[in-house]
Amino acid sequence: MQPIERLFHAVLFEVLAISLSIVGLMVFTDHPVTKLSGTMITVATIAMVWNMVFNALFDRLIPGKREERSFMTRIMQVIGFEGGLLLITVPLMAWMLSVGLWEAFAMDISVTLFITVYAFIFNYCYDHLRAAILRHRQGNAGHDHLPV
């Protein structure tokens, strides 16, 4: 992927993730959409920054080729990332939505589980749609098709 497509992929992923998270929280809570929107945009922004910070620190702590990391190392990386993110976002969500820590934790865990499944589905669909578009473009390369 070229940098512009990576940017498109990341923005599309985040816009859909935030939108779907807001809709899900609207269905299961009684919080107004304005508060949920602000909260989810803030949480997504923190997650992106935390991702860069955490993974830079993790790469220093666990040197070597990333593709050679063991399954257990990858599990520890995910647990460390998500655990750190929860420590940051649960109190923030509690404050922004005026709820207790337990309710904020339950909402945050729900969003985290949703995002995990969503990321799998989104990337699967994106990759297959991208491949189909590229095949279509390659099949039409060199052919001038005028609209009828």
Features:
single chain, mainly alpha, 148 residues, globular
Task: Write structural notes for this entry.
The chain has helices spanning 3-28, 33-61, 71-97, 101-140. With 148 residues, the chain is mostly helical. The protein has one domain (3-139). Helix 1 (3-28) packs across helix 2 (33-61) and helix 3 crosses helix 4. The radius of gyration is 19 Å and the shape is globular. It starts with a helix and ends in an 8-residue tail after the last helix. The model has no long low-confidence stretch (mean pLDDT 88).
Brief summary:
With 148 residues, the chain is mainly α. Helix content is 82%, strand content 0%. It has helices spanning 3-28, 33-61, 71-97, 101-140.
Order of helices and strands: HHHH
Which stretches are low in confidence, meaning pLDDT under 50 for 5 or more residues running? none
- What portion of residues is helical? over 70%
Shape summary:
globular
Tell me the major beta sheet: none
Estimated structural class: mainly alpha
How many separate structural domains?
1
Distance N terminus to C terminus? 33 Å
User: What's the rounded overall pLDDT mean?
Assistant: 88
Individual helix count: 4
- Rg from alpha-carbon coordinates: 19 Å
Oligomeric form of this entry? single chain
Number of strands: 0
* Proportion of residues in extended strands: under 5%
Chart the SSEs and their pairings:
Elements: H1 3-28, H2 33-61, H3 71-97, H4 101-140
Helix pairs in contact: 1-2, 1-4, 2-3, 3-4
